Amino acid sequence: MTKSILFVGVGGQGIILASKILTEGLLKLGFDVKMSEIHGMAQRGGSVTTQVRYGKKVYSPCIGKGEADILIAFEKVEAVRWLHQLKPGGTLLVNDYEIYSLPVLMGQESYPDQIVERLQEKVKNVKAFKAAQMAEDLGNIKAQNIILLGALIKALDLDGVDWFEILKEQIPPKLHALNIQALEAGMNV
């Protein structure tokens, strides 16, 4: 059975790194894995999505409308924007975090209220938590992607591989300690 995971967020949040670490772990677990990434803008602030599909045999990384088993949103509005991709009964992991678009920053629009509550009304299995705040508490907000990855690994029940070693292979040594703490924090959400 093939599993489909859709990562969504904003450029600069580390979505691609998190999906690459997941892909490496899935390969080491013996799965066939396909990954595809889409950048909305070639700079920080644009929408970014990554699709990861894994199973015994996977022919395409593409996830159709209503086919994602898990939607992992690095920002709340992105969860709303991509919710149509989640299958009925799927799992939604949400970073309870706000990144304001240019129209919001300029006062032309307002950031929507009660997003998490609205998502919980639409999706039965929602896990929302403050990954950005958790990362700041560890010393660097950039580690929010690894916290979210840890929560995803736990949600998928992916044991049997040393995720900490895979993490160390993908990041510079000076960041190992912080990111190991972040991965542990995510796995314990």
TrEMBL record:
One of its GO terms (molecular function) is oxidoreductase activity, acting on the aldehyde or oxo group of donors. It comes from the Bacteria. The keyword Membrane does not apply. Pfam families: POR. It comes from Formimonas warabiya. This is Indolepyruvate oxidoreductase subunit beta. Residues 11-187 form the Pyruvate/ketoisovalerate oxidoreductase catalytic domain. Gene3D superfamilies: Pyruvate-ferredoxin oxidoreductase, PFOR, domain III. Keywords: Oxidoreductase, Pyruvate. The keyword Oxidoreductase applies.
